[in-house]
Amino acid sequence: MDFLNPTKKRKKQYQLFIGYALMGLALAIATFLVVIFTLGFDIDPKTGEVIRKGLIVVDTHPEPANITINGQSKGQTKGRFTLPEGQYDIKLEREGYRPWTRSLILEGSSIAQLVYAFMFPVELKPTTIFSYEQQPEIATQSPDRRWYLVSQPGELGTFDMYDLNQETTQRTQITLPPDTLTLTGEKHTFKDAEWSTDNRHILINHVWSGGSEFIVVDRAEPLSSINVSKLYPDLPITSITLRDKRADEFYAYIASSKTIAQLSSETGDITVLLRNVTGFKPYKDTTILYAKQIADDAKNVEVRMLDDGEDYAIREIPAAKAYMLDLAEYDGTLYVVAGSPADGKLYVYEEPVQQINDSIRNQAVPLRVMAVKNAVSAVFSQNARFISLHGSKEVVIHDSEEVKQYRYVHDIQLAPNQKITWMDGHRLYAVDEGKTVVFDFDGSNRQELIETDRGYLPIFNRDYESMFQLKAAEDTVDLLRINILLTLNN
Hints:
Blueprint: H1 6-38, E1 41-43, E2 50-61, E3 66-69, E4 72-76, E5 79-84, E6 86-93, E7 100-106, E8 111-118, E9 126-132, E10 139-141, E11 147-151, E12 158-163, E13 170-175, E14 189-195, E15 201-208, E16 211-218, E17 226-227, H2 228-231, E18 239-242, E19 249-254, E20 259-264, E21 270-274, E22 277-283, E23 287-294, E24 297-307, E25 310-318, E26 324-330, E27 333-340, E28 345-350, H3 352-358, E29 368-371, E30 377-380, E31 386-390, E32 394-399, E33 404-409, E34 421-422, E35 427-432, E36 435-440, E37 447-451, E38 459-460, E39 466-472, E40 477-483
Parallel strand pairs: 2-8
Antiparallel strand pairs: 1-2, 2-5, 3-4, 3-6, 6-7, 9-40, 10-11, 11-12, 12-13, 14-15, 15-16, 16-17, 18-19, 19-20, 20-21, 22-23, 23-24, 24-25, 26-27, 27-28, 28-29, 30-31, 31-32, 32-33, 34-35, 35-36, 36-37, 38-39, 39-40
């Protein structure tokens, strides 16, 4: 029996040790290869050299589109390409559409998500939905991009409601009860519409010579519309915004006392929340970002944040007539921006309240400081990933996902009171010398669309299959529909 033979027993033990050693070495090599491949490393089969690779993911609206990378055809979207790190030029083409291009430097083990490309038709062919005899005072779209409310010129309290998701755009007319509006005075107009998240109620400011009031329009049941100002006749309201985008609770600003009060149309209650306020921006149910006067300091204001009943100091900024204050959540993180046009600086904070509570010095440190000359506005993109700050000649973008900053010069000739704003989550647009121009967040893929009147930028329906535009004709103002999703035969 071999196990009783010492020589054979030692031989078998040596064989086992060698086998275990070889298995361990093989496992180590396999683990090493898995790790390096996971980190984006690969081996060039021609040279045997170790190279690093990254992933490029390409998609577009509308689909499909032909993909070219560094001049070589790579099929159609949706596309995923594992490529060695380096510089790449990507081009998307589709019959009847303007090409979309992007240059990038792909780093090893990184993923470049080019899934936001938007292609416009070469020819934008409008069809007229309805014609107005005059320019409507207000035109506003619901958050779900389905409903479009347009005031009827010359008919105070009458609105047209369009359903943009129908193949043939549906138009219905709604009229407010006569006692909803104040009919005295002259030069009646509507402005500053804010939709509730129910996509049914719209808060509108009705202004006339000598007065102002705030109306909640119920598009589904116009007879249920209410005049919020008439509920509080003794309260000199300067402006109103919806609390948590609800249609029955509000934040009212009283400029004469620099006070913010919380109102309820259900109970009629008035609760004073803050005093000495010179500008504010509410967020959800219990948060208000605001600028507060500093005693004995006319040159600066203090930016503070009321959060769930607790009041936090964020920073001081130069005093101005209006401030750049905003809040939004991206990927589960709250971002807060605060700045003043007086110095053109915008401070970006990541979870400032959490920072203050966790900090020994009880301070929030900005994630980034953005700055431009002649700052006009700061706006979150619709997906809240990007923050734009634009001035008279420059645009600065903060990317919260990649923690990057983009800065570029623009040549847009903005009319007074007009701004560069977000078309969607990745594109900005504005009116440039009477035409709408659109471009990606990094300034690339600038496209000139259609002639535009009085800052009425085009709007889009839910799936971005069509865009709509109010445009002055010879004797009328026409509401136009332009299809973006063309058939491949067009």
